[in-house]
Amino acid sequence: MSENTEYSFFGDVCKSFDKAAKFTKWDKGILEQIKACNAVFRMRFPVKMDDGRIEVIEAYRVQHSHHKAPCKGGIRFAAEVNQDEVMALASLMTYKCAIVNVPFGGAKGGIKINPRKYSAYELEKITRRYTSELVKKNFIGPGTDVPAPDYGTGEREMAWIVDTYTTLKPGEIDGLGCVTGKPITQGGVRGRREATGMGVFFGVREVCSNDDVMKNLGLTTGILGKKVIVQGLGNVGYHSGIYFQDAGAKIVGIAEYEGAIYNPEGMDVDEVFQHRKSTGSILNFPGAQNIEKSTAALEMECDILIPAALENVINEENANRIKAKIIGEAANGPITPEADEILNAKGTLVIPDMFLNAGGVTVSYFEWLKNLSHVRYGRLEKRFTENLNSHILSQMEVLSGKQVSPSEREFIMHGPDEISLVHSGLEETMISATREVMETWKSHHNIPDMRTAAYVVAINKVATSYAELGIFP
């Protein structure tokens, strides 16, 4: 890319889309409609700061596709937010939802602020004003457009959004479904916080269980013993690392914006997290080597690399130096198209973000369903299942004359509570989506990589939706 060419994240997404579209049967007009952003809301609004001055805030909400309703996508607070980025992330949401069979159109929102530079009260005023602007233009609602947390936002901001929405829409019975990622007390669902990281683990684990794929990479099947580097120790990176660690992988490297640490013998993710909490940095973790430049950790020796921070961290400048055999894209767009080509040519397997980090939207879907049904998951069946399991177990013990161990008894008798049902639903979703993408890749011999296969799956599903709606004859 020349220095005079302005980079476009949305342009990169469109390039990947066009690359995959050649492997589909759809008319050019349908493909253009799928690729285009249907609605872009760019806004400016004034907010009074704590010191009395007025600041004009720049913000966006993009609805990429209306082939399904409502639209769905997070809201990020970051100084780098711009229209191109929000359009790109909204389009990726459309394709992501299609691949994992979540019935939403894609959307995304962003407010151009660095949240670290504002007080909690200022952030609350900004969030509530943004929500009221969305309400005015019908860009939020349980049947219209359902935001969620993203970079720089969390449960607190979602609570402000739902409170503002329900205040402006009194008596709307499904009002809690206007946003997901809420605190449990405000209609949130258990398991949402760890969902994206857990989904990343389930997707990578499914790929690693494929004998042919692992043989081609020169790796043994399974997660056990694999060396993993995680970039980003935020919500997604932390939970990804924890699940890989629990499955027997070695976390040999962790990177954050202040630098990175590396230990070929492995590190405990929780201990690193606590070290950062107490010292303000991951650096100087006992037994680990400090790496001054955070991005240098991406190039260290490992089997699996999990970029879980921001986009474009792997580009044409550093792609050749990446040593990982497998890259699991936990962040949105961490690899540029140019880097993709380099990595594919050298045999690196890239598991693309557009379905690998779909854990968040999958569990958001479960939360939305919970809000519409007005009942907690497991409430109706938990005790019934436990009583039934207890009766079956006691009959088996009477007939066999043997007793099961207390731990086995507890496991067998356990009835489904909300978090176990959510985790189970997420596991099923990620395994099914990963298998579908891999089967598409395998069955079309000319499809060069998993990302292109994922786009093919997404394009076929969205186009079929449009065709079945009768929009295109």
**Which percent band covers the strand fraction?**
5-15%
User: What is the correct CATH architecture of the domain at 40-186?
Assistant: 3-Layer(aba) Sandwich
Helix content: 40-55%
Major sheet, described briefly?
7 strands, mixed
Biggest sheet strand order reads: 9-8-7-6-10-11-12
The CATH class of the domain at 40-186 is identified as Alpha Beta
Low-confidence stretches: none
Summarize model confidence as the mean pLDDT. 92
Number of strands: 12
Distance between the termini: 40 Å
How many alpha or pi helices?
16
Rg measurement, Å: 23 Å
Global morphology: globular
Judged by helices, strands and strand pairing, the structural class is alpha/beta
According to CATH, the homologous superfamily of the domain at 40-186 is Leucine Dehydrogenase, chain A, domain 1
What is the string of SSEs from the N terminus onward? HHEEEHEHEHHHEHEEHEEEHEHHHHHH
CATH topology of the domain at 40-186: Rossmann fold
Structural overview:
By secondary structure, the protein is α/β, with parallel strands linked by helices. The chain has a domain at 40-186: Rossmann fold. It is 45% helix and 14% strand. It has helices spanning 9-21, 28-35, 83-99, 120-136, 155-168, 195-208, 211-217, 235-246, 269-279, 337-345, 353-356, 359-373, 382-400, 406-413, 418-443, 450-469, and strands at 39-48, 54-63, 71-77, 105-111, 145-149, 227-231, 250-256, 259-262, 289-291, 304-307, 326-328, 349-351. The strands form 2 sheets. Strands 9-8-7-6-10-11-12 form a 7-stranded mixed sheet, sandwiched between helices. A 5-stranded mixed sheet has the order 1-2-4-3-5. Helix 4 packs across helix 5 (155-168), helix 6 (195-208) crosses helix 12 and helix 6 crosses helix 15. The protein is globular, with a radius of gyration of 23 Å. The two termini are 40 Å apart. 47% of the residues are buried.
